[in-house]
Amino acid sequence: MGSCGIGAALLELRRDLALTSDQVLSEFHAAEDRQAVRNEVFGLLALDSFRIDATILDKTKTVPYLAADPLRFYKEAWYLHFKYVGPKIAGPKDELLVVASSLEVSRKKSVLAHAVRDVVEQIVRTSVWATAFWPAQADPCLQVADYATWAIQRKYERDDTRSYELIRGKVATEFEPFLFGPTTYY
Fold first, then answer.
1. Domain limits of the chain?
2. Among 5, 23, 84, 161, which is 20 to 30 Å from 117 by CA?
């Protein structure tokens, strides 16, 4: 059984911040946290051993039928990500738990949960796998994913690599399936 040691470290950091400062947080969320908190979280991330695989989709190169349907776009993003990353991280004898952050809207939640399960079923070749949809507050490893995606997004959208540089050694892949597409739709 695998673990998320960095998740335990984040819970401990949250407790420490509550005891030693005015930072009483229900979760870590990179876009909303103060810079001092982000510094602490990225400091922890830099020390731990984990792998980041990112799939970067240029929205301006997204075909109109996908751009018009956010749920279909989400499933396509999961499909592209797992088609590229799945064989690199999970073999036939591995156990795989895919956890995605849940949404508040129950119709969307149900559709997205089905989409992720469908993609995993199509791509992953492990004999034991499951998908879960938990609020980010419930799983500190989802908060790690939030911080990683925030840093990567800032690198690509703002050319701001300060946070990315702190996790660069954890980034195993940055897959850009739309990179060489010649058509920009908007």
1. 5-175
2. 5
